[in-house]
TrEMBL record:
Catalytic reaction list: Preferential cleavage: Arg-|-Xaa, Lys-|-Xaa
Alphabetized PANTHER family for the sequence: AT26814P-RELATED, POLYSERASE-RELATED
EC number: 3.4.21.4
Protein's gene: Dper\GL14363
SMART domains assigned: Tryp_SPc
Residues in Peptidase S1 domain copies: 49-285
Protein name in UniProt: trypsin
Gene Ontology BP term (one): proteolysis
Keyword rRNA processing included in the entry's annotation: no
Amino acid sequence: MLMSEFGSTAADTSTLGQWSGSSMLDQDTEKLLRTNGSHGKMSDFHFLITGGYRPEKNNLVKYVVSVRSEQERKFFGDNHFCGGAVISTKVILTAGHCLYKGTSRIKASRIRIVAGTPRRLQRTDQTQIREVSSAKPHPKYSPRQLKNDIGLLLLKKDLSPDGEFVQIITLSSSSPPPGLKCTVVGWGTVIQFGPTPDEAVNGDVAVNDKSFCSSLEGFSKGMICASDANDHEVDSCQGDSGGPLMCNSIVVGVVSFGAGCGEPKSAGVYTDVSFFGDWIKSNSSTRNEVAVTLSFVLIHLLMLLIHLSIYVY
C-alpha cells in the first residue's frame, strides 16, 4: 500500500510527480527529498501495501484511521494522505513526516481524522470524523531526515470506540523480536505509482533482524524493519505512511519509509514504538485533561483538609 500530497508522505523521488489525486507530492517536499535525507540523498526512498490482500472480515482496520486534509477535492475520501492508529479516544499515533509539507509544519486546523471507515470513499453510520486540536511531531524530527519519525494528533472531540469499527490499540512496551509475524494495514497504493484503493488492504510481514535492517540506507536507532521473505512484493507504500505495524493486535511500529515498494532484498522501515514510549505517554494529554486532573486532585485535597479540620475540632 502506498503515500500522499498533503504531508511529506511521498514516493520514489526519481519519478515524483507521476501520481494524481492524493498521491502527488507538493513541490516543496519533492525538492526537499530529492536533495536531502539521513545520508544526504533520498533518490530511491518511499514513505511507504503492495502485494497485500483484503480479508473477508478485516479485524485490524478498526485500529486504523485515515488522516486527511480539511477539505475534500471532489468527493468524500479523496483527501487522504496518511494513516494513523487509535491509541486513546483522543490521541492518534502517526508518522512525524505526515505532519509536514516540505519544511513547514501543517497546522492542526487543516487536518481531519476519519475513523470507522474500512472503505476510504464511503461514509456510513459508523464513520467518525474529528477535528484536530494539536499536531505534535517528535521535537527531534527533521523534515530533512527520517530519524525520530513519529507524531501525535490530539483530537478536539473523543472518538467513540465500539469494538467493531473503532477500537483503541495497545502500544508495545518492547521492540519486537526477529521473525515475529505482523500486519500493516492502510489505503496506500496497491502497486508502485498505482491508484489509491477504496478498501483498506492488509500486508503480512515478519520483523527482520537488526543486522539486516542496519544494511538499509537511512536505518538508525529507534527504527525496525519488516518484510516477507517469501514474497518481496508485500510491503507498505505511498499512502500508508503513519499507519501501524501490528503484531497480535499490538502496535509495534509506524510506517516510515522504504527503498521502493516491495523491492527485492529490501524491507519497509518503521519507527519503533517502544523506543518512543515515554515521549508518547508524556505528550498524549491535552491541556484540558491536565486541568481536569489537577482540579480533581485539588478538590480531593480540599475535602481532606476539611475532614481533618472537623476531626481536630
